Request: fold
Amino acid sequence: MKLILLGAPGAGKGTVAKLLTRLDGSVQISTGDILRGAVQAGSDLGKEAEGYMKRGDLVPDSLIMGIMEKRLQEPDCEKGFLLDGFPRTIPQAEALKELLAKLDITLDVVVDIEVPREVILDRLCTRRTCENTDCQAIYNVKSNPPKKEGICDKCGAKVVQREDETEEAISHRLATYNEKTAPLIGFYKKEGMLLVIEAVDSETVVNAVKEKLGL
Reply:
């Protein structure tokens, strides 16, 4: 399958992507992952991106598209890919459309996961992450707490609330999403590619995608 996952922070894109990749061996690709991969590989594009990332600046679209072009041509993408959190803006969506046409790749569908704001706030405010960068296991103080409070079950490191997962930070992230990324829904609707799924659990989203793609 070749698809794009849209949805606000906390909509469950990452969880859904992991479940979908198990169906047919497609790979999950997030902008963060490909940027980190390019930096680690020490490619020219990676070195250029690293400069922006170290300064805390946004990596320019032209650079992201260059890295994305390389990534989509890697052998593991032949079975399919899920773009998680990319594109984020209309210019990125337009650039991606041109890139896919150039690479002769056809998207199957663009999935928009709609989750009520109060569910997202509750989900992210109660989320905790292992601070060990090699582990980064995710917990939820309500639904999936670590066995020992504040300690990761897997590696024994501290479990913390990320700075961007306080209520204030989440509200800001949602406002940014609504301003910059939500217009993509209209863009892909016009393209006739949009599948809107209103669901708070990942299994429902996965089943709707399977039905749409006949899997």
